[in-house]
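Translate sequence into structure tokens.
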Amino acid sequence: MKNMSRPNQITALTVGVAFLAFIAAIVYGIVAAGNDRARAESADTSIVLRDDSHRLDTAEHSNVTLVEFLDFECEACGAAYPFIEQLREQYAGQVTFVARYFPIPSHRNALNAAYAVESAARQDKFEEMYQRMFQTQTEWGESQDSKAALFRTFAEDLGLDMKQYDADVASESVKTRVQKDIDDGTALGVSGTPTFFLNGEKLEVTSTADFHRAIESALAN
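Result follows.
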């Protein structure tokens, strides 16, 4: 058997590191969730999913829903992104996937990214901008300079009406929409990202296998 080429080795290593980061984030989320458990248990779980929450996929004949509170600048969310895309492909038509904003205050461009994605959503390009943010995260994440201008080029690349985009990204309406997700997440006890809810309940797993088992169990029930 031939040895794996160096580019393939690098790709495999990158994917492996990303999955380890994702699992570490899940474990961290469980520990952090312990500090907010009482608050989460007393929260109104009906706010996990709103009518205007952004659905990446909708399962017409299934009531299984996975909601992710995320931060586009969060490295753990970036690591989770390929896995979530795999789940979307695997469970297409069976699970509704929802993305909700939860930008972390310490991330300089987390709000800018959320505003850009929400502005793209106003032109029916939520998923495209959502994907662009995670696909380019390593290029702009952790920067202390505003990346609003870079995000505007993403909007141009997607063919958005830039006059409308510029108005939306600076609008109180977009800010209010993003803040509503933040407020709901806070009320639910979300303290870090990514945080997942499966059918309204906070998902506490320690591996991707646990993730699959939880979904399979929800589908079976």
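Note: Residues 6-220 form a domain with the Glutaredoxin fold (CATH 3.40.30.10).
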